[in-house]
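Bump. Still looking for Immunoglobulin superfamily DCC subclass member 3 structure tokens.
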Amino acid sequence: MPDSLIHPRWCERAMSDFHVHPQATVGEEGGVARFQCQIHGLPKPLITWEKNRVPIDTDNERYTLLPKGVLQITGLRAEDGGIFHCVASNIASIRISHGARLTVSGSGSGAYKEPAILVGPENLTLTVHQTAVLECV
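Sorry for the wait, here they are.
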């Protein structure tokens, strides 16, 4: 009997361990913080985020889920500090990343600062009719 008849399709479903875990970061009040995680699975895992083990409220416009497992928080406030986890789920399983602490520091003197590019755009390879998202923070 061929193997394809012995093993039902659900046996092909799986999820790897995280390739990239979120990293601790320090952000300044009013600034931007970003966390990233990467994981592979079949079917492709749905990525969500938790802060202090509570799901992130994505209705809050300051919390944005970007492609490639990135959580971006803008207009940082002291109450944004905490431990963030990436949660990947598909029909095969659920995986939770290591925790990463966000520390929000005071804005200091309030003096003007030169702009700095935190994250520039990355190269993309797409097929016709796919949407490209090029980020610059």
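The first helix runs from residue 3 to 6.

Edit: fixed formatting.
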